[in-house]
Amino acid sequence: MSGTETTLQPVPPLDDVLADIRSTAREQLAGAFQLHVERVQEELHRGWADHIERVVEDRFGDLLRRAQEQLERALTTRVDQEVAARLQGERETARRQRSEDFNRSARRLVQSGSVQEWSRALLDATRELCFRAALFSVAGDRLRCEGVRAPEEQPVDLQTGVEFATVSAPAFAAAIDGKETLVAVRSVGELGETLGRALPANNEGKAFLFPLIGRQKIVAVLYAEAGDEPVDVNGLELITALAAKALEALVQEKRPAGLVSLSPSEDAKPAAAPVALSKDEQDLHSRAQRFARVQVAEMRLYKSGAVKAGRAESRLYDALRQDIDSGREAFYRQFIASSPSMVDYFHLELVRTLANEDPSLLGPDYPGPLV
Question: Has domain 115-232 been given CATH number 3.30.1330.40?
Answer without folding.
Answer: no
